[in-house]
Automatic annotation (TrEMBL):
It comes from the Eukaryota. It is found in: Nucleus. GO terms for biological process: regulation of transcription by RNA polymerase II. This is Mediator of RNA polymerase II transcription subunit 17. Residues 16-35 are annotated as: Disordered. One of its GO terms (cellular component) is mediator complex. Component of the Mediator complex. The lineage of its organism: Eukaryota, Fungi, Dikarya, Ascomycota, Pezizomycotina. One of its GO terms (molecular function) is transcription coregulator activity. Belongs to the Mediator complex subunit 17 family.
Length: 312
């Protein structure tokens, strides 16, 4: 297959060279000085890089969605859209004009064009993103990524996306130069999206009279739940020691492979005694964050901290 591809690309290069010779060149440059590049191996490398990028990005997003669903966010999901090739219409291909490419030329031009794919990802009901990947042919053969904010579920207004204020993506044209840069953004954005999602829950639980804290009546005060300065935790501003924090990082396995782990940890005080409640959610089946029917969810940790009692 590779040998056949090289023959096709070499024939295409000769044809392009012939077309270039028929065109008048710059007046200050002699014809024999004009350099024509024959891209024979680069298109094959570009296609291979594109296929690898699709697999790696899909695996990364799939691991993140698996973690979020373990944590109790049932809405977490993603959809991959890998556009198929669209050939020119038959009229354009059968045209006798010398300026129009033949069917073979049109096919090769299509294969040499930048390759795109996109992933629509729901992290939380309030945080949805679209990851666009494009593999460039020239000047560098590489895949770059862009992140765009999508409207929340049951909404058509992208400005209501919680990440717009807590962790907006890089908006320049070049976006993220590689998958590692994209991963760094996602590992930063998801904990902040979780804090945005569960802050209203903490506020509603603390305002419910039936969810009374264990503090004496004379010491009790209305809690004011806010996000931390880093944005990856929610805390009671009236009690410094009540907090629920989210951390998402990458860890190494014994065999050298990597896994993603989300840690949700809560801390509060009952009198002078510190209490904690935490849970790990792991991207590797069978790891410390393996899902189970009795596994504590993030909602359970929020309830335990806000009500100052162990969640059942």
């Amino acid at each position: 297959m590779t040998q056949l591809s090289l023959h096709v690309l070499l024939s295409f290069a000769h044809r392009e060279n012939e077309v270039q010779r028929r065109r008048p060149g710059p007046p200050h440059q002699r014809r024999h000085e004009q350099h024509n590049q024959y891209h024979l191996i680069r298109p094959i490398i570009s296609r291979a890089i594109h296929d690898v990028s699709v697999r790696q990005c899909t695996r990364l997003v799939g691991d993140l969605v698996r973690i979020l669903r373990q944590a109790g966010i049932e809405e977490a999901a993603f959809t991959l859209n890998n556009p198929q090739f669209v050939l020119p219409n038959s009229d354009a291909l059968t045209s006798t004009s010398s300026n129009r490419p033949t069917a073979a030329q049109a096919l090769v031009n299509l294969l040499l064009a930048p390759s795109d794919f996109q992933l629509d990802v729901t992290l939380t009901p309030r945080a949805r993103i679209q990851i666009r990947g494009r593999t460039w042919f020239l000047p560098l053969t590489t895949t770059q990524y862009q992140v765009h904010l999508l409207p929340p579920l049951n909404s058509t207004d992208a400005t209501q996306n919680s990440l717009l204020t807590s962790c907006p993506p890089y908006r320049e044209r070049d976006g993220y130069p590689d998958l590692q840069s994209l991963k760094v953004y996602l590992l930063t954005a998801i904990p902040r999206a979780l804090a945005d999602l569960y802050l209203p829950l903490a506020e509603s639980l603390s305002s419910n009279p039936s969810q009374a804290t264990s503090e004496p009546a004379e010491e009790a005060s209305d809690p004011i739940w806010v996000k931390s300065v880093r944005g990856n935790a929610i805390q009671d501003s009236t009690r410094d020691a009540r907090e629920v924090a989210f951390e998402l990082d990458e860890k190494s396995n014994a065999d050298g492979s990597e896994r993603l782990t989300l840690k949700a940890s809560g801390i509060w005080y009952e009198g002078s005694e510190a209490r904690t409640k935490f849970e790990h959610f792991d991207s590797v089946p069978g790891g410390e964050g393996q899902a189970s029917p009795t596994k504590t969810k993030i909602k359970d940790i929020i309830e335990a901290v806000v009500t100052a009692t162990e969640a059942v």
